[in-house]
Amino acid sequence: MPHFPKPEAGSWTEHFKIGTEPLSFEDSISPEFYEQEREAIFKKTWLNVGRVEQLPKKGSYFTKELDAAGASVIVVRGTDEKIRAFHNVCRHRGNKLVWNDFPREETSGTCRQFTCKYHAWRYGLDGKLAFVQQEGEFFDLDKGDYGLVGVQCEVWEGFVFVNLDPENTTELRDFLGKFGSGIEGYPFDRLTQVHKYRAEIGSNWKLFIDAFAEFYHAPILHGGQYMAEERAKIQKYGYEALAYDIDGPHSMVSSWGGIAPPLDRKMVKPIEAALHSGLFGPWDAPDIGVATEDLPPAVNPTRDKRWGMDSFVFFPNFMLLIWRPNWVLTYHYWPTSYNTHIFEGTAYFVPPKNAFERLQQELAVVSFKEYGLQDGNTLEATQTMLQSRAALDFPLNDQEVLLRHLHHTAMRYVNDHEASTADAS
User: Fold this and answer.
1) Contact predicate 263/195, CB 8 Å
2) Is residue 292 helix, strand or coil?
3) Mutual orientation of helices 205-212 and 401-424 as an angle, nearest 10°?
4) Which of 123, 253, 259, 299 sees the fewest Cβ atoms within 10 Å?
5) Rounded to whole angstroms, how far apart are CA atoms 126 and 55?
6) Maximal C-alpha separation, the chain
7) What is the chain's percent helix, strand, coil content, to nearest 5?
8) Which residues pair with 151 in a beta bridge?
9) In the β-sheet with 340-349, what is the strand arrangement from edge to edge?
10) In the prediction, which pLDDT does 216 show?
């Protein structure tokens, strides 16, 4: 990975040649554009749906609801240890195959076969139809013709991805590009202590990615989270990242923020001082088998000693944050309509060795939850006012370069899909 010094003349935005004009957010308020995104993006690209730790043994499975793609998938570890994915549809009458009390809710577990609740058709972990109730009542039924409908499924660094496009020919590793290859080797498998939270957000999915792709808002929106001295200092000097980068549809920002312990201990809250933890994670970084200076090349790409955190956006909706104190956050943004989505945040830590370390991790998790609630609340206000169309064009500064890239990318995917559809007809 190359170094990314900010150009002496110009800006990051000008460096990436993606325009400096005001941006329209019509793509975030148009029901028609959302329907196009569903076809062009969420039914066509690789989507991260989980991790291998969710499938610890043969027969382990989980389901994932992909509302934007109009699909539900089953992800399962087979008897041959291979991880596969299938559409969650029984081949008899189309009933949802795997669910518990509420068919719209996701579930997980372990089984030897999948059995339909409606007429008891059974399928093996490899998706093959194994049993048909009163099979003789059917007409020339060949069970080999009615296995579960497969979904492309690949694993990268323990993260499980699916692609719903049966004509997709791009392998996952190629899709993830230089950021994916540059992260490979990070010891994600050591971070098996998991904390999750989920929220239904009243905004377009891209607007929440926007919120986490820039830190221009932090001193103001999150000002109440800082001690007075720290807040004054941040508001005075503002924020500028160490580096930004773009690779095809994906992007990243490398930050000096996230150094733990803080350089000035007087600026932390009493509970943070007591637990040696906070927003940026536990101050005492656990051993993950790799030193900071030896991290994979995409992590802290400038090799700046002030580095604290990198945030990668793997288009369309998977954000991966790697923190200097050796922990990881992932964010997912799952659209449910043009102005609503489900936000999922997951924190990964090295398993704590005692109660104190557990409390350190939980303080980091609840701190991020509070920040996320503040962002989510603001986004709902943003969505409603954008929908008023009282203003149509909005200026972005250089720190908001990744926002511009995200909206341009979504527009490009939709335009390319529309063009290919027109050509095919």
Assistant:
1) no
2) helix
3) 150
4) 259
5) 15
6) 79
7) 35, 25, 40
8) 85
9) 193-201, 340-349, 327-337, 318-323, 309-314, 250-255, 243-247
10) 73
Is residue 267 exposed (0-12), middle (13-18) or buried (19+ Cβ within 10 Å)? middle
Q: Are 318 and 183 in contact (CB under 8 A)?
A: no
Residue in the block written with tokens 């999150």: 222
Residue 70: other Cβ atoms inside 10 A: 11
pLDDT, tens digit, 9 for 90 and up, residues 252-303: 999 886 566 666 666 678 898 899 998 889 998 999 999 888 999 999 999 9
Do the Cβ atoms of 152 and 168 come closer than 8 Å?
yes
CA angle (63 as vertex; 58, 64 as ends), nearest 5: 140
What is the Cα–Cα distance from 305 to 256, expressed in whole angstroms? Answer: 9
Helix H or strand E segment including 252 = strand 250-255
- Domains belonging to the chain, first-starting first, are 12-40+186-424 (3.90.380.10), 47-169 (2.102.10.10)
User: Does residue 121 have a pLDDT over 70?
Assistant: yes
Q: 378-411 burial, b for 16+ CB within 10 Å, e for fewer?
A: ebeebbeebeeeeeeeeebebbbbbbbbbbebbb
